[in-house]
Amino acid sequence: xxxxxxxxxLLAHGRPPRHPxxxxxxxxxxxGAFRARVAGWRxxxxxxxxxxxxxxxxxxxxxxxxxLGAWHAGACVYLPADARPATLDALKAHVDGFAGxxxxxxxxxxxxxxxxxxxxASTAFxxxxxxxxxxxxxxxxxxxxxxAIPKRLSQLSSxxxxxxxxxxxxxxxxxxxxxxxxxxIYGLLFRxxxxxxxxxxxxxxxxxxxxxxxxxxxxxxxxxxASPAHLKRLPSTLDWASVRGNLRGLFSSGGPLTPEALQAxxxxxxxxxxxxxxxxxxxxxxxRRRDTDDSASWRTMPxxxxxxxxxxxxxxxxxxxxxxxxxxxxxxxxxxGGFELLGRRDRLLKLEEKRVSLSAMERTLxxxxxxxxxxxxxxxxxxxxxxxxxxxxxxxxxxxxxxGGRRSLSQALREKLAPHFESSALPRRFRxxxxxxxNSQGKSTEAALAALFDPxxxxxxxxxxxxxxxLLEVEVPANSPYFDGHFPGSPxxxxxxxxxxxxxxxxxxxxxxxxxxxxxxxxxQQVISPGTQLTLELTWAKESGKLGFxxxxxxxxxxxxxxxxxxxxx
Length: 570
Known about the structure:
Blueprint: H1 10-13, E1 20-24, E2 27-30, H2 31-48, E3 52-56, H3 60-72, E4 76-78, H4 85-91, E5 97-100, E6 111-112, E7 133-138, E8 148-152, H5 153-171, E9 176-178, H6 185-198, E10 202-203, H7 210-218, E11 222-226, H8 228-231, E12 247-252, H9 259-269, E13 274-279, E14 283-289, E15 298-300, E16 305-309, E17 312-316, E18 326-335, E19 338-344, E20 348-351, E21 354-357, H10 358-367, E22 371-381, E23 384-393, H11 395-404, H12 406-417, E24 429-432, H13 446-451, E25 460-465, E26 469-475, H14 495-509, E27 515-524, E28 533-541, E29 546-553, E30 556-566
Parallel strand pairs: 1-10, 3-4, 3-5, 4-7, 5-6, 9-11, 11-12, 12-13, 23-24
Antiparallel strand pairs: 1-2, 7-8, 13-14, 14-15, 15-19, 16-17, 17-18, 18-19, 20-21, 22-23, 25-26, 26-28, 27-30, 28-29, 29-30
């Protein structure tokens, strides 16, 4: 193990020029290349002026160098979770510029690029101030609009040092692999800042699919930084036994790890993950590793204090701004050395002049059978607010839908809720999925759940899934707005909508490049009428950047072609 460095002194002290920092597609980037790139970014930020910059790029090496370059220029970095036009547009009023890479054609912010600097060894850096306003991160928006959370460098430095004290000795100096994005606080800490300060290299590209994880571990040892959403989707058909010896550490954070995911890790990977409890607001709070005890308590991290006020978990730590206690949305019971979680506190909504607990409704839906998971959210329809349910059916739930249709399953769920809730509060809209939609941090945001009820988005179900192919059952709702005016008396689904759906659903299942380039071999064979049950086959060829699609039904083929995409990170 090399000597750990404090975040403030990472570049002022420095490491030998040949010390490996990142593994990129074109080879290993060393400390000299890292310093040169940071110096180039520092020069770019200084020349542009301003103190606040949005940063988004998928390449972790470019991200890390831009982040350090901004800090050494005295600037604060805002981390958007994505580079969608709406996200960047919302940031426009808060930042002086954009660093990294925006999608092609977006003019919301003009991106900066680093100045050329080939000699990292001779570049001088001063220590960073612990009081630097270093970062603004955003909550996941899992129960509402994302909230901006400012962080001083001292908070980040304290948390990274804590990770080193807890996990360095057992982790060794092997590279860090990750399924999660560095644009979120968990990925930022575990995938970027901790590796930099501890001296272990990191992979510059994420591993979105189980096949990617397996291939990375087959090439050599590593630590895996993952989310519960990734760990619960490990297929038993892959040869995990061949890489158990190379998996030197496993981390999970971003949400609760289900019993099924925990057992899959034990059975397939040969170890339970180190689970980390925390949030964007609190930073890391506690950790545990459940090798044999499924109910092991959470152990607080060094310097962190916790207490339970009326069952609510409250936290005070150096990872928070100086001052008092932060009250979380989790219920807890204190135990020696830590705490036990008792579930989420109730989310209350006033509906028809009556208070409704969304948390209680979710618990009732799951406890009553038919659903394995449930999320209840408010939707605005016209001038009123209604409740909607996103559910993951169990085997009985799927059988009920297959035998009686989606309406029969929805009615059965309403009947289970009726004894416990006012009739005016019962959900009116339902969507059923194989798994909850999650972002790159493994969280189901309210925005993503609400998007499932957009009338322009087709309801679908996953029939088959592999790393480069997905087969979907897609409904064509008769009330889709795309049928309006196309054509009166004989409505058909426009071809451009078929392309839009293919690309939209392709982005939900594959990590696609941002830019549309062209279409190839496009064919429309038969029209699609309202109410048609379609099968959509999507195939993704990463090397050529081509998303293939094929729409069929009981009538035969409707459309097929390839959508060519481009524009990588960097």
